[in-house]
Request: fold
Amino acid sequence: MMNWLDSHCHINDSSFREDLDEVLKRMEENDVLKAMIISSYIEDYDFAKTIVHPKIAFKRSLGIYPGDVDDVDEVLFERFAALFEEKKCNAIGEIGLDYHWTSDNKEKQKAIFKQQIELAEKLGKPLIVHSRDAIEDTYEILKDASVKGVMHCYGDDEKWAMRFVELGFYISIAGPVTWKKAKKELAVIHTVPLDRLLIETDCPYLAPSPMRGKRNEPSFVVYTGKKIAEELGVEEEEFKRQLNENYHSLFTL
Ligand SMILES: [Zn+2]
Reply:
């Protein structure tokens, strides 16, 4: 039996401090045996490095979140840059552009996104990209990048998805594909080639049905995975095999 995996989780978030052992136990019970832990803060990254389990293979990423760029000065940027070089930092992200809450700082968002891409290129580390209400600018910046990456929690349409696939990127699908009215997400999974799809929880948010509204956790990725396999008419084992292959071809470190 192949395992499931969660390509994007925040189990280092404070909402898991009380019962992390239980959360890891449910991962093991549900065969979610690989996960990428995302950190947007240095303290969260330090904590992520302490999360270990005998049956679960964790990878870690660190990156300056686009919503936080207003708080970033040169000193803080250099602290992130130094940590990117660590062996335990397997990917750079989540980084990107988010114009949903504010677009007054577009130029700073773009600058910090580009600077982090440059470091990833230098280190040969893959990108984990967050893009919200900013797909055109995200594409403009990524089209010149020399490293691969994943468009995490992908929420734009299938035409844009294919443009990122053509750049060599993966498309990661989160819980919303299981919700009612998931029209856009369904169009995306039916368009993107299987060898470019990933799945994730983005927990603690965006729990898939039937857990919608609850705190999300990596074991719930199974609902998302089963839904996609069923929707695509692919055997679950074959889908899991493909997900594992995709995960390892992107996250080689
Ligand atoms: Zn995230």
Summary: Residues 4-250 form a domain with the TIM Barrel fold (CATH 3.20.20.140). The two ends are 24 Å apart (CA to CA). The longest strand covers residues 32-39. DSSP finds nine helices and eight strands in the chain.
